[in-house]
Amino acid sequence: MDQIITRFPPSPTGYLHVGGARTALFNWLYARHCKGKFVFRIEDTDQVRSTAASVDAIFDAMAWLGIDWDEGPYFQTQRMDIYKDHVQKLLRSGHAYYCTCSPEEVEQMRQKALASGGKPKYDGTCRDKGLGPDDHAVVRFRAPLSGTTVIDDVVKGPIVFQNAEQDDFIIQRSDGTPTYNFVVVVDDMTMGINTIIRGDDHVNNTPRQIMLYQAFGAKLPVFAHVPMVLGKDKTRLSKRHGATSVTAYRDMGFLPEAMINYLVRLGWSYGDQEFFTREELIEKFTLENIGKSAGVFDMDKLLALNQDHIKATAPERLADMLLPFLHQKGYAAEKGNYLCKVIRTLAPRVKTLVEMAEAAAFYYVDEIVYQPDAAAKFLNGDHLKALRLIRDELDALDPVTETNLEESFHRVAGETGWKLGKIAQPVRVALTGKTASPGIFEIIEIIGKERVMGRIARAIGWIENQTVSG
Ligand code: GLU
């Protein structure tokens, strides 16, 4: 078997869509699985719709997902000479011809075909005229008039097209520019692509592409057309369903590992397994397990998977990804031991990095904002004594460790006869402003005795003020 060579050829007419990212991943994973080659190409021949900003957005998304390529990026706009040469090749071999019919004439032919119950198509007027180049001439492909063209699709099985329904499509416009299906085939052929995995919205382009391969005498690649990604209402995923740009999920606090895992699972399976590391995906990805039915994008599943990946990821790596979110909130967070400890306490409790940054507030702010409910319930006269006792215990504690903190809290519980919760909850509110947080012994050890003492003193003062003013 030849080396597997796959490709990802996005058109830079917008950001990288979730479906496009999945296509990129499938091709990349398959190349990596087979120890083959992955080629990256920018299909920017549509000069009107292509933008440099979209090219940048696609590169940014690929970098975020960690999809690297072995060859490219190629830009179609830099390959015009190659396309021209290939048009000439087909003209020379008789597989293409010049046509001087005007657009109005072609439109009339199409209407006529429609009126007689056929498909709207060019009627072959110039097919055998033997015309030469002319200012207004287009170049048409001499398509077979009968027989069938079959896509032997790895995912969908054989798909048969009647050649009689195809027309002599244009491969080069009158301004000398090549058309879409033509450049795709010339690129795939000259880049040695032998496996094409793409969305099934391209199925209808494929018979024309196959005809071109045949005209060039080139070997057909393997085609795998993957069902589209759908929204919950089973229509094609669009903005109505939520964000469709893959990097929007980075901004929402998803890990690339989770995004990759989720996108791949949307159209591919390996038994019942849901969680995959990047390495496992490379090891296990084959074309046989691509699903025949469309995957439905489900935000709750993605969130659950993100949570699993957050739990499975080393704090040092999470730190790199979390920092921008912390800085966005204005926290002077930096890489290091403190941040890693913070992350260890929060990772089991959040679904996204956005949630993690929110939950990290009490580790970074100078002054805790008490949630009104929490303060009403625990920062009141009933709990003043507990806070004072804990303050005194802590004052005497050196060093402050999880173990001796636990002893201190138990001592206070023993002396007062109160349950641990009655003591711990006001302390928790004093330290975090909330009634739910990571374990307070961990928190105390991380934020350190001095800040803890300050926060407890402030809570005591807060209660005392209230009691006086109340
Ligand atoms: N440029 C096309 C797109 O972005 C892909 C073409 C192909 O995969 O053959 O949809």
How would you summarize the topology of this molecule?
Elements: E1 5-8, H1 18-33, E2 37-42, H2 52-65, E3 71-75, H3 80-92, E4 96-99, H4 103-115, E5 138-141, E6 148-153, E7 157-162, E8 170-172, H5 180-190, E9 195-199, H6 206-216, E10 222-226, H7 246-251, H8 256-265, H9 278-284, H10 299-312, H11 315-328, H12 337-346, H13 353-359, H14 361-364, H15 372-378, H16 381-396, H17 402-416, H18 420-432, H19 440-447, H20 449-469
Helix pairs in contact: 1-9, 5-6, 8-10, 11-12, 11-13, 16-17, 16-18, 16-20, 17-19, 18-20
This protein binds glutamic acid.
Glutamic acid (GLU) is lined by residues 9-11, 43, 184, 198, 202.
Q: How many beta-strand segments? A: 10
CATH architecture of the largest domain: 3-Layer(aba) Sandwich
Most strands sheet: 3 strands, parallel
Classification by helices and strands: mainly alpha
Count up the domains.
Answer: 3
Write the CATH fold name of the largest domain: Rossmann fold
CATH level 4 superfamily of the largest domain: HUPs
- Helix share bin: 40-55%
The level 1 CATH classification of the largest domain is Alpha Beta
Strand order of the largest sheet: 1-2-3
Order of helices and strands: EHEHEHEHEEEEHEHEHHHHHHHHHHHHHH
Q: What would the average pLDDT be, to the nearest integer?
A: 96
- Alpha carbon gyration radius: 32 Å
Query: Which small compounds were modeled alongside the protein?
Result: glutamic acid
User: Approximately how much beta-strand content do the residues carry?
Assistant: 5-15%
Using the alpha-carbon principal axes, give the shape. Answer: elongated
Uncertain regions spanning at least 5 consecutive residues: none
**Count of helical regions:** 20
Q: Ends: how far apart? A: 84 Å
